[in-house]
Amino acid sequence: MSLRSLLLLLVFVAAAHRGLADDGYRLWLKYDPITDVAQRNAYRQAAQYIAADGSSIVLKTAAKELQRGLQGLLGQPVPVVAKVESGSTKRGILLIVSPTANVSVTGHSQDGYRILAQGRNLVVTGRSGAGVLYGVFALLRELQTGQPVSNLAQASSPRIQYRLLNHWDNPNGTVERGYAGSSIWKWYELPNNLDPRYTDYARANASIGINGVAINNVNASARYLTPEYLQKVKALAGVFRPYGIRVYLSVFWAAPKVIGGLKTSDPLDPQVKQWWAAKTEEIYKVIPDFGGFLVKANSEGEPGPQDYGRNHADGANMLADALGQHDGIVMWRAFVYKANSNGDRFKEAYEEFKPLDGKFLPKVLVQVKNGPIDFQAREPFHPLFGAMPKTPLVLEVQITQEYLGFATHLVYLAPLFKECLDSDTQTKGPGSMVAKVVDGSLDQHRISGIAGVANIGSDRNWTGHPMGQANWYAFGRLAWDYHLTSAAIATEWAKMTLTREPKAVATIVDMMDKSRDIYVRYTTPLGLHHIMGESIHYGPQPWLAKAGRPDWTAVYYHKADSLGLGFNRTATGSNALALYSPGVQKQWGDPKTCPLNYLLWFHHVGWKQPLPTGRTLWNELVTRYYTGADSVTWMQQRWASVKPAVDPAVHADVTARLQIQRQEALWWRDACVLYFQTYSRQPIPAPFAPPTRTLAEVKSLVDLYQLK
Amino acid sequence: MSLRSLLLLLVFVAAAHRGLADDGYRLWLKYDPITDVAQRNAYRQAAQYIAADGSSIVLKTAAKELQRGLQGLLGQPVPVVAKVESGSTKRGILLIVSPTANVSVTGHSQDGYRILAQGRNLVVTGRSGAGVLYGVFALLRELQTGQPVSNLAQASSPRIQYRLLNHWDNPNGTVERGYAGSSIWKWYELPNNLDPRYTDYARANASIGINGVAINNVNASARYLTPEYLQKVKALAGVFRPYGIRVYLSVFWAAPKVIGGLKTSDPLDPQVKQWWAAKTEEIYKVIPDFGGFLVKANSEGEPGPQDYGRNHADGANMLADALGQHDGIVMWRAFVYKANSNGDRFKEAYEEFKPLDGKFLPKVLVQVKNGPIDFQAREPFHPLFGAMPKTPLVLEVQITQEYLGFATHLVYLAPLFKECLDSDTQTKGPGSMVAKVVDGSLDQHRISGIAGVANIGSDRNWTGHPMGQANWYAFGRLAWDYHLTSAAIATEWAKMTLTREPKAVATIVDMMDKSRDIYVRYTTPLGLHHIMGESIHYGPQPWLAKAGRPDWTAVYYHKADSLGLGFNRTATGSNALALYSPGVQKQWGDPKTCPLNYLLWFHHVGWKQPLPTGRTLWNELVTRYYTGADSVTWMQQRWASVKPAVDPAVHADVTARLQIQRQEALWWRDACVLYFQTYSRQPIPAPFAPPTRTLAEVKSLVDLYQLK
Questions:
Q1: In the 3-class helix/strand/coil scheme, how is A73-101 assigned residue by residue?
Q2: Contact B653/A193, CB-based, under 8 Å?
Q3: Residue A300 bears catalytic tag
Q4: Tens digits of residue pLDDT in B349-365
Q5: Same domain, yes or no, for A374 and A432?
Q6: Is A223 on the interface with B (CB under 8 A)?
Q7: In B599-629, which positions are buried (b, 16+ CB within 10 angstroms) versus exposed (e)?
Q8: Which residues of A touch B259 (CB under 8 A)?
Q9: A531 and A634, same structural domain?
């Protein structure tokens, strides 16, 4: 073949290749060739072969993933050798599983790894195949983000043991609160047809340390416990196993009746116990490394043990008994609130669960949402954290943006997750952070867990909004190590996913890190909450006064009247504040010391009350709505400035979504200031121009999303 | 750059390219390089440039599409030139729009094209830009399927004017009866964000002659008529326009009440008329080439003119009036059947619509499903065809496999579509085929239409089952020319999509062409119908005896008893047969001359009644169930034999789905023979072995799909 024809061929192959815009499918595992020649050569020198010592199936995955990553980054194949030839002068990467590996002493060392430059080689060691796999992804991350590797010496173990995604995916392929297409699980095609996407999903999870997946909605179908569906679940478990990921099932409490043919689902009924024990045995025969059960019971219409006069502990312990000697757990959700309650929904989970502390068997963890209501853009930490020292608590956060603008608003969630993790419950004195409750260190629990409700769907780019990928990534990284900063995680992610151009990275990270606060400002500033569109949970609807239940309205929460705004949860009100430790009560109980971010969560504040900012409540509220909406314009400008550094398709996609976000920020702003103005009877303060549309006009816009 | 480094680079780029398995996204427009060197060179000789004469936006698309196709197939760029240099000796392809172009005289010449080798050049002429675009895709098809082009001379015009896809897509992103992920329309992101997929969708449609799209479910939301959603629709229309595709909307009859604030939706109310007229004006201001309205009214709970004592013509005519001078149409669906009817659902559409023949305004077409019930695997043609000579009738077929095994069963639907089109209504003597009713030639209608309910979703390969793409393709090709054979269409599709290896193509086409008959055999042989799983419409449930309405059960339709099986629709029964012309009545009315495929549609036949096949009804029924299920094994073998010729990922995908199909064919077989055996009390005839499971076991399998 002549040079000329070769060149021509190359031009065409490259053109065909270029034609493929970045569609986001590869997430942060892109492995595009490193263009810095000196750096690439240094890495090439250091990675001339891969040697894997051990037979673990996960170790094999580690070698394969390392090979794949290196081939992409270095632009040349790197062989996996069974054994290093003696006397070889080549430099390589050794992967070693050793039960006594010297990994980080903090955290769960079984999953830990160490990466060390030793002599000619880089050595990745772990106490398990999974540990080495996490080490490999950590090493690849160093290369992807352009770090030197010659003197690498790092060791890390995860602080939390069970790091799970929760999929709210239904058997019909829909995803409850999913905004990225349909479920990625193809139930009609399983177990025969294994979509290659299942493997890519597992790769992505393993790369950020996620080691478990509850694959079905907590509003669960009984289907998954049938022999036929267990075969389908087994097929998925088979794909995930080589990546160190275990499968968990959400269970429908009435399954013994619905598919077992029993007359009851009473957890203390001997037949029911026997049914669950037999079912659990059946599951472990099919899936020997099954992770366990996730349960939503007696919550929002789901059946549960209370239907039989039993309590949550009776239910959870029955399932723990059914697990017997198997290495599985029960995650029992604390997200409960009674229908037509006259009290304060804020308090209900606490009131039901706090008395049960100490009543749960060792295999049970109680899964608590970050805040007391339901994944609002900002909530104070859930009062159960620190209040159940005898029970391991799983922290549940939402990665999918149910209340956070779906897939059209750019909201980077690491700051939200960290705000909760860093909150000091003070239940064992200052420093009793939620993170320490969750990782078990505060109360010396043997097991610990964290769960993120997935934002993953069948959209080509997995998450709808391209920047939503960062929330999946950040959840995994924080589950591993909550000491990482939001900005550090965003920097890693942006470098691997969007661009390696330093100024662009800094711009993007700045924008991401501020985005959640911006969202709060234009939707629910100063501690407003639950004023969004009915049932769809999109757009503003602060005027919602009638719904299926009082605690599904907006007025229940904001309590606007001619005097002021906010929910009085002090002793003169619902007294939900009393659920917190005295130190927290003291700070939050006084409107002067309560952080402004939580102010209206706990206080009914007069419209003209001056705040520490120097403005009255009304003026501060309006200021936040306006500056919040204007900050979206700032984000648009920031994003426009990185255009040369980002793939054009991705850039255009985010640009379009930011336009929508700007429009909808104005929609939120106008809806809320015009509505609350009907109570405050105050003008829009300078320098802000009053909305140019009427409240009625904004209301009709919102109605759109409620139309049949 | 040295030859060596070039070679290395090439290897890597090619490897990266090879790594991309065929994910089906490119459909039949793959344009992979032609590997036959002689053929490629011949094509390269003939296509050295493209010249487009005219300024139509669709003509520009034609040039662009031709360039794209040629670049892929020929492996070299082909320039588009403004004008051919005089004295040039190069050979090229000329695209010409000419109002007097000599296209095929049969059919709608405005969309027709001619391709002719003239002197050095190939000339593609059309009377419109769309005509040239269709000609370009026809030319590319010649190249894709390896036909010689040196003496090309062909002309073609579509027989049917309005060739539409109907999307049953909902505003929340779900698709009613969709089995390929979620809707491809991203309503929350429109109008700002234009998914590149919209363009690829338009390309695929234009390539098979589809010129209209009703983008939303006939169970319609009022949302689409709001100013906000019209902006979103406008954005889609803008993507489709350069491909000659117009947008249509399904309308919610109660829209004047729901979004117009009126007290009524009575079509004769002046305010209602005015509202629709104003709304239509508003639509045309936003979308000047808007196609018109599709209406499901007074059907399955949808509101309609009958709510006000008016009839379908009153409703349709009011909308036609609203369209005024705009170039739009009204497609009014005839799919109606009253709740709790004591009659025969078979007759209801006829009884409601036949008396209205002649009452509709010129812009109205009545849209009739292929058969009288609802998209069963086999139905006799709808008795309205031929019975409404004064009204243009749109034929509605279902491309999505609601009753045909979703996305797990391989069922090629061209034979089903053709069976209906080729049916002779005999209403104007022999030769009065449904096709001639539909294309308007039988009754000299000026307008004609055909609609296919789309099987398109967000799955990467668009249709879930890779072979489902062939059904989309076949619909378009038959809409253009119903004289094409099923096998010819399958051959085109397979060559463009799967392989060019002649023996493999023949094998695949054989399998496809028999697949629908195979499906009928293992599910509903001999004219059985509507015995599938309740509401989900998947799997067998012939024992279903109670449902929301009697005509939603299975027993209503099969009427099995100790004497025999089948629905007596002769004069001694419901007399639905009387709706057909005398010739049809005569043939179908006598069980001896009634085609076996329709037997149980019209006759209650004794279990021991001998059939023309020499077997009793019972033995024939069992034989068909068994041979049908075994034919899936035959399909598996056929598919296995083409493995070397087909992309490995696609081959594995179809292989896995065939495994499921085989299991479910056995499930259907066992369910039906065991259930009907409880009435026939006859043994399974030799050589077939009785099912090894009990009816109760099969029933519990079916229950799975009905579980919460």
A1: HHCCCCCEECCCCCCCCCCCEEEEECCCC
A2: yes
A3: yes
A4: 999 999 999 999 999 99
A5: yes
A6: yes
A7: bbbbbbbbbebebeeebbbbbbbbbbbbbbb
A8: 707
A9: yes
User: Where does residue A582 rank: exposed (0-12), middle (13-18), buried (19+ CB within 10 A)?
Assistant: exposed
- The answer to whether the beta carbons of residues A419 and A474 sit under 8 Å apart is no
Q: Which domain holds residue A533?
A: 521-567+604-706
Question: CA of A542 to nearest chain B CA: how many angstroms apart?
Answer: 21
Partners of B169 in beta bridges: B175
Q: Say whether B10 and A13 touch across the interface (CB within 8 A).
A: yes
The two structure tokens encoding residue B483: 């004289």
Do residues A249 and A232 lie in contact, with contact meaning Cβ atoms separated by under 8 Å?
A: no
Which of A9, A649, A707 comes nearest B10 by C-beta? A9
Whether residue A196 lies within 8 A of chain B, CB to CB, comes out as: yes
Angle, helices B196-207 vs B129-144, to 10°: value is 80
- Residues composing chain A: 708
CB contact under 8 A, A223 and B707: yes
Pairs of residues, one from chain A and one from chain B, whose beta carbons lie less than 8 Å apart: 117
Tally Cβ neighbours within 10 Å of residue B590: 12
Among residues B344, B348, B374, B620, the one annotated as catalytic is: B374
Q: Which regions of chain A are under pLDDT 50?
A: 1, 6-19
Tokens 């969560």 locate to: A601
CA distance A369 to A360: 19
Q: Are residues A372 and A415 in the same domain?
A: yes
pLDDT for A219: 97
A701 to chain B nearest CA, in Å?
Answer: 8
Position A8 scores a pLDDT of 47
Name the closest residue on chain A to residue B459, using Cα atoms: A458
Task: Give B272-284 pLDDT, tens digit per residue.
Answer: 999 999 999 999 9
Look at residues A127, A156, A185 and tell me which one is the last residue of a structural domain. A156
Please give the structure tokens belonging to residue B614: 């020499």
Residue A504 lies in a domain: no
Domain final position from A100, A130, A156: A156
The catalytic residue among B379, B402, B419, B513 is: B402
- Min distance A377 CA to chain B CA atoms (Å): 20
Average pLDDT over residues B422-443: 98
> In this predicted structure, what is the pLDDT of residue A20?
61
Q: Is residue A580 in some structural domain?
A: no
Q: In this complex, do A707 and B179 lie within 8 Å of one another by their Cβ atoms?
A: no
Q: Are residues A249 and A373 in the same domain?
A: yes
